[in-house]
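Hi Y.,

Following your request, here is the sequence exactly as I used it, all 216 residues.
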Amino acid sequence: MTKQIIFRGGTGQAKMLRESLDNKIKLAAIFEQNKDIKSPFNDIDIYYGDEGFNTWYKKFFIENETYFAVAIGGDNGKDRVVIHHKLMSWGLRPFSIIDKSAYISRNCKLGVGCQVLPQSAICTEVEIGIQTIINTGATVDHECKLGKGVHICPGAHLAGLVTVEDYATIYTGATILPRVTVGEGAVIGAGAVVIKDVKPYTLVVGNPAREVKMIK
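Below is the corresponding structure, written out as tokens. Let me know if you'd prefer a different format.
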């Protein structure tokens, strides 16, 4: 029997993830809270809210054969982790989606439910937490440690020995220099060059990156 997977989230991230899916697993449904969002795929139904999930679950859930991916990008890492645990409590299993064009070192450690998208690279002795996204063309160099719910956005680059704590977001084209720590929930603006540690829940921008505000 072909395994089935559901996506929580029906916007651009869902489109990216479907393209990177292994052909041994079939996309079965999409779930959304926002009823204004339509299914991005003509052949896949979309369900809304808890009511929609319950309706689908009663009809189509297959124990030990139903997986999920949280197709929510941006700086929503904490939401991805919360949804991860909620779906697991219903018996669904997290699925890591890794594009065939990505490079992943043989001795790195990837948390369950991670997403490694086209042309990205994860180098030797990297550790990555659950529900972390390494997006298109992003690179993570040797011995970096990334927490849960992190998002390394398209074209962002981490040098060696960088630590990125839980829920932090490194936006498009940013560069983090060696041995820097990016604190929990911090946001690195697009194109920023980070040369020193970033405090938790702060936004930094520019070259060199500077703190502009705290994030609630």
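The chain has a mean pLDDT of 97.

Thanks again,
Q.
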